[in-house]
Amino acid sequence: MSDVIAVLPEAIVTATAIVLLGVAAIVGDERARPWMPWLMLLGLAAALASPIAYPSSGLAFGGFVVVDEFTAFFRLTFVVLAGFTALIAPPYLRRERVPDAEFYATVLFSTVGAMTVALATDLITLFVGLELMSIPVYVLAGLQRRDRYANEASLKYFLLGAFSSAILVYGFAWLFGIAGSTELTQVSAAVAKAGLGSPEVVVALALVTAGLGFKAAVVPFHQWTPDAYDGAPTPSTAFMSVAPKAAAFAAILRVMATALGPVQLDWAVVFALLAVITMTAGNVVALVQTNVKRMLAYSSIAHTGYILAGVAALAAGTSAGAAVIFYVFAYGIMNLGAFASLMFIDLEGTRGATLDELNGLWSRHSAGALAFTVFLVNLTGIPPTIGFLGKFLMIQPVLDAEFGWLAVAIALNAALAAFYYLRVVVHMFMYDPDATAPRIEAARLLSASLVVAAIVTILLGILPDPVYAFALRAAEPVVIR
């Protein structure tokens, strides 16, 4: 019974997905449509509250699962992101005739996979969680089945995702060969004994880095990102740009800090270099994009680089882990909000709006333009937003880990990114719409959700203590000692 209680939030989310599909099958998708997001939110709220009624901590299922502060923080993050997705999706799903029940249930199944990653204390659990998260996202990318861009996005994502999963599981197989166990702490002891002088450890480290790098969209494993984000239905893009990335970094923290922590001094430099390459490549390519959805896709790659810098600095202690965890949470809200803001524009197909199609958005939908501006300011890292605080908290542990050049790279890239983020703001406020401007979708729930989320990003930028204190506690299990 204690094992079941340990995974009660995941069980509730799974049950909610099944209920949504059942309700739609019984009463019909059209009649169920108005209730779908609210049923999903009710299930997510129950999942979030269940640890209060049935508290559980420690190991479960024979050591395959652990419930700790790290697990709790990422559970909260994934539930918030899934709930935000439920609120912003209805207008688009109705307009483009995307099946509601399928969309919400698929988001929930992916959320269960992401939550399982945060629970993992074993390579098997970790891999099962990553695949349970990834496979529904492949479906989300192609959910608009009659759209050729969505088909292309889903196929590219699936093929490259399957390839990366094979690399990752091969890396896990090497770790099992070294340790004779898939349990993370036993792998850590075996790696410490073998050291980086062992060819087996080098091969395992390279394979695991490549496999997890794909999941997080680290350069040069990012090739799927622009086409998948651009072609997928916009609500799917909003979710898949944040939840899988958050889960990927939860996996990276578990594996790199625990299983491969003994050789941290060797892989930290590699991660620091990958961080600089990733943030620079993402920002430079984003500069030349005129399609805003594609620009945000490259922007998300750049943010992967910022988060990866914190992973490289894990030797600095709890502050580095907390910076990574806090930035993952902040990035999730501001990036999901930025993609969701594009849903005010009624476009043919699923491609994102061009800069010209955003001309004069302020005069056509002031609330949408203001919310989008706040999210872009967050992504830029301008105070007093949670986006600024995330970058600020990241730089200190990077300096403590003696990566001064990496801190400089973060600052320079943040300045570079300001150009293309603020260019969008200029088009929304300082250009007049022309006669061919697309129709604006007047959606009250979408507007209210984005305005509330935008206000939250500012409030947490001013009063971050509750979230950051939680992140500090969550970082304790993944501190390299």
Spatial ordering of strands, largest sheet? 1-2
Uncertain segments are none
Residue share in β-strands: under 5%
Globally, the shape reads globular
Mean pLDDT: 88
H-E order: HHHHEEHHHHHHHHHHHHHEHHHHEHH
Termini Cα gap = 34 Å
Total count of domains: 1
Main sheet makeup: 2 strands, antiparallel
Helix content: over 70%
Radius of gyration: 21 Å
Oligomer: single chain
Structural class from helices and strands? mainly alpha
Total beta strand runs? 4
Number of helices: 23
Features:
481 residues, single chain, globular, mainly alpha, two-stranded antiparallel sheet
Structure commentary:
By secondary structure, this protein is mostly helical. The chain has one domain (2-478). It is 76% helix and 2% strand. It contains 23 helices and four strands. The strands form two sheets. It has a two-stranded antiparallel sheet. Strands 3-4 form a two-stranded antiparallel sheet. A hairpin with a 4-residue loop joins strand 1 (58-60) and strand 2 (65-67). Helix 7 runs antiparallel to helix 8 (123-141), helix 12 packs antiparallel against helix 13 (234-240) and helix 17 runs antiparallel to helix 20.
In short:
The protein is mostly helical and 481 residues long.
Helices and strands, with pairings:
Blueprint: H1 2-6, H2 8-27, H3 29-32, H4 36-53, E1 58-60, E2 65-67, H5 69-88, H6 90-96, H7 100-119, H8 123-141, H9 148-179, H10 184-194, H11 199-216, H12 224-231, H13 234-240, H14 243-259, H15 264-287, H16 292-312, H17 318-341, E3 345-346, H18 361-364, H19 366-380, H20 386-400, H21 404-430, E4 439-440, H22 444-462, H23 465-475
Antiparallel strand pairs: 1-2, 3-4
